[in-house]
Design goal:
The protein is of the alpha+beta class and about 60 residues long. The protein contains one helix and three strands. A three-stranded antiparallel sheet has the order 1-3-2, with helices on one face.
């Protein structure tokens, strides 16, 4: 079994750039034992613009038993 962690990274309103460097977020979580699974932008299609307002990084790691 795995546990999952979802990290939301929002975009700056005027520039459209992420508020955080997703590469650093992935590296930091990898150092804590999390495996990067996927990047996901749930509001991309529903935001009404060509880009979403945020994306989520999905991580997993085995549950210690």
């Amino acid at each position: 079994m795995y546990e999952y962690k979802f990290i939301k990274i929002e975009f700056k309103k005027f520039s459209g750039k992420p508020n955080e460097d997703y590469r650093e977020v992935i590296k930091n979580h990898a150092n804590e034992g999390w495996r990067f699974v996927r990047i996901f932008s749930p509001d991309f299609a529903t935001s009404g613009v060509a880009v979403g307002t945020y994306f989520e990084l999905i991580f997993e790691k085995p549950i210690k038993q």
